[in-house]
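Lecture notes, structural biology module. Today: joint structure prediction for complexes of six components.
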Amino acid sequence: MRDPEKPHQIIEAAIRVFARNGYYNSRVSDIAREAGIAAGTIYLYFRTKDEILVTLFREKMAEWVGLVREEIAGARDPLEKIRRIVALHFRMIEAHPALAEVVQVELRQGQKFFRGASAREVSAYFDVIADTLEEGVLAGQIKKELPVKVATKMLFGAMDQLATSWVLGRRGYRLSDAAEHVTTIFLKGVSADGV
Amino acid sequence: MRDPEKPHQIIEAAIRVFARNGYYNSRVSDIAREAGIAAGTIYLYFRTKDEILVTLFREKMAEWVGLVREEIAGARDPLEKIRRIVALHFRMIEAHPALAEVVQVELRQGQKFFRGASAREVSAYFDVIADTLEEGVLAGQIKKELPVKVATKMLFGAMDQLATSWVLGRRGYRLSDAAEHVTTIFLKGVSADGV
Amino acid sequence: MRDPEKPHQIIEAAIRVFARNGYYNSRVSDIAREAGIAAGTIYLYFRTKDEILVTLFREKMAEWVGLVREEIAGARDPLEKIRRIVALHFRMIEAHPALAEVVQVELRQGQKFFRGASAREVSAYFDVIADTLEEGVLAGQIKKELPVKVATKMLFGAMDQLATSWVLGRRGYRLSDAAEHVTTIFLKGVSADGV
Amino acid sequence: MRDPEKPHQIIEAAIRVFARNGYYNSRVSDIAREAGIAAGTIYLYFRTKDEILVTLFREKMAEWVGLVREEIAGARDPLEKIRRIVALHFRMIEAHPALAEVVQVELRQGQKFFRGASAREVSAYFDVIADTLEEGVLAGQIKKELPVKVATKMLFGAMDQLATSWVLGRRGYRLSDAAEHVTTIFLKGVSADGV
DNA sequence: TATGAATGAGCCTTCATTCAT
DNA sequence: GATGAATGAAGGCTCATTCAT
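The predicted structure, tokenised, for the full assembly:
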């Protein structure tokens, strides 16, 4: 396996193809054509079609979580961190709609049929959110009796649904505009009473 | 084409099979076996495999929305209605985990590849939530500057994510227990300032 | 097996259906619908779909030969007989185009795949022609060195091709008009030298 | 899609298989086995089973007509041309009985159900015969009031029937022996009176 | 390493035939 | 006898994967 650029090219091609047709309606040869290589070449870098999807998830989710971690690293205030997480989430979706589409639509299938291969990476994102919420509790900004796991899933689910609607819909508006609303509502919902 | 029970039996069998393997990993003959009939018989009631999934979505979503409408009909208070919607949502998921799995996992694929056949039914559910929020705004219980559409998607997304986690996870806890938390956080998030 | 009219009705329906779609593109249920009965009923009168075609051939060919025999019975002159055979052949094709179509198109398949079941009936038609030619030889009107079998097949083939062209074409002319030409050319071809 | 020999091999295999079982009783996998390739390979060269038959007709008929044209190119005398056409027709049938069988038996089905795809090629053969007859009329060897279209179909039908009988029968004689008889009878039938 | 022709297992769908009513 | 719902074998076609070049 020589060309270290090929797997990346294949993944990027797969993202575009899966976004267009979905995993099960995409042929390996479609990905090859999109990547400008021969179908057989794909098998020099991936053992099966499944492995493309699994790798895709793993790499992209890891990248994503890395970016989120960077984004919030500079912030001291937990509430500000939440604000940045939501803003970044929506910015990423808007910047990479094809990737967004794949992750939104295929992730669930994926979690079920591809051996939860991306489970670790997905849960890392949940961890970032959960950790931030815990921080806020300790800082007294978030109510201390907050069921953090539930709240984490709520925030993720809320962002995910906004993203899904935007992706599946006509994209006739700026998703980023929703970020502030989402943050406001969520933070009010979890805030400590006195705040 | 007589037996009026057959389509129902086939749909129920399909739910179980799709929940187990996913739509694309299920064979028509699997559905037939699960339903206790011959594969050919399915084609007396459905034209294609796709049509089974589309019909499944349509019927189950319509049923679901019907139940939700009934559930909140008795309540006067919009906040109480939201509470009941969330509670019913989770009760339904727990009561019909296979259906839940199918809807959770396949719906997105579905929205994209099965002609948005269930679009109307799904959006009916969104409408119920949105209408209830509007009511709350008029009643002064929910803040009047609330972006209703965003809030609607947030609540749906939050419930959906909790459900998905529960379905894909080990189901090692009572999903209903989360209902109260979800309601509390959400309602606090959207409540009018003075409340 | 009660209703003695049913087999006949089924055969007539089959002729229309086969003429429209060909044997292999026709369903048993198509024949049943055309006959105004249920598909299962057909199996009270015929054991298989094949048997319908075989019976159809046998009965119709026998009928045909019977008519031809009647038609020429009144004629003394062999040449006149040939003239009548050709004229009747074309009249029959025009009068029963659906039957013609089936016989023209399916007969060859039939001869090969349905066990030559209609071989006897078809060859009876050949016999009528051959016998008439022999008669003409004896009467000195047809050249005595005529290879009767070849000439018989030639006349049949000629009529058959005219009929096929007419059936497959637009039927934009009167087939009967060709009868005289065919007869003239053929009789000239086989006539005794001095005639 | 490279090997330029494959389509030819597949066509030749198909001819043998169709000759044995007929089009509708032949499986694609039968053709593949006969050609010594995998069933899937056929679909690299033909889109459907139908297309095999259509291509077969088109190519073989074009070849046939080309050969006929060559055969008569050297002859000046129209009657001699007819003689050669008939002789070649029968020689071809004898040399390629499988092809003959397919063309004889399937052509009619074909003309009806495969979009008349071979219509042009078949009618090219009719044209050759018709043109030759016209030539004979101009040369004064064939009677000038001859209905050329009818005579053309008669000759074709006659040859076709002889061929069919030989193909479907036991082939217990030399078909070529019939050529002279057919020519003699036909030419006498269409000859100008004084000749 | 890259190619893409070849492979063949797999699945949806059709439809002749059966049989309970 | 008549029905038509049910059956299930069969086959066309697809496409992930292999391998000779």
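Point to remember: The longest helix of chain D spans residues 49-73.
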